[in-house]
Design brief:
Elements: E1 2-7, H1 19-30, E2 33-36, H2 48-61, E3 64-70, H3 72-83, E4 94-98, H4 122-127, E5 132-137, H5 146-155, E6 159-163, H6 175-187
Parallel strand pairs: 1-2, 1-3, 3-4, 4-5, 5-6
Helix pairs in contact: 2-3
């Protein structure tokens, strides 16, 4: 049974943004069970090591995980995926990064550890994921260079969707996130 694992944005909870809407649709239309990983040690000051361990534990506990991560959650999901042991069968069915980033235009002190270039090894992410995609916006207020973000995700082998005017993709309903989930399910078959 596939399980949808959602890794939220900075300060996000299971009730934030589009997560309740997506979880309800995933359950009713796709029959997916879902869980939302809590950022560690706190949602307002997540740390890479603690959060990556929490994401890795959720992945390890799932039979056929589909990971949908948002913003800083993308960094944690990429790091957790890279940290999976070699030969995990099956690998992650799909990893979907919503409003993911590699740089932040005006970083604050507690986000600085998330910007490390060695947070994950790209080749390990590719080897442990059947399907990788990213959904980004052309006017994200946290990372303006969407072309560079797109290029970095494409270097990972991700299918990238650019959504005009979607800011940080954190509305109560995000059709692009739903479409990415549907595409992932088809592509991971």
């Amino acid at each position: 049974m596939r399980e949808l694992i959602i890794v939220p944005r900075w300060s996000g909870t299971e009730r934030s943004d589009f997560y309740p809407w997506l979880r309800a649709r995933a359950a009713s239309e796709l029959g997916l069970t879902t869980r939302v990983v809590e950022l560690r040690p706190t949602k307002d000051a997540p740390e890479p090591v603690a959060t990556t361990h929490a994401v890795a534990a959720a992945i390890a506990a799932a039979d056929r995980p589909i990971v949908l991560a948002h913003s800083v959650g993308c960094r944690a999901a990429l790091a957790a995926t890279a940290a999976l042991p070699e030969g995990r069968t099956p690998p992650i069915e799909a990893l979907i990064c919503i409003a993911g980033w590699f740089t932040v235009d005006a970083p604050w002190p507690t986000i600085m550890p998330w910007l490390a270039d060695d947070l994950f090894e790209p080749a390990r992410v590719r080897a442990r994921t059947r399907w990788l995609s990213a959904v980004i916006s052309d006017n994200d207020p946290f990372t303006a260079d969407h072309a560079a973000t797109r290029a970095r995700f494409e270097q990972l082998g991700a299918a990238v969707t650019l959504v005009p005017g979607a800011r940080h993709l954190n509305a109560a309903e995000e059709p692009a996130a739903w479409q990415a989930l549907e595409a992932a399910l088809v592509s991971a078959e």
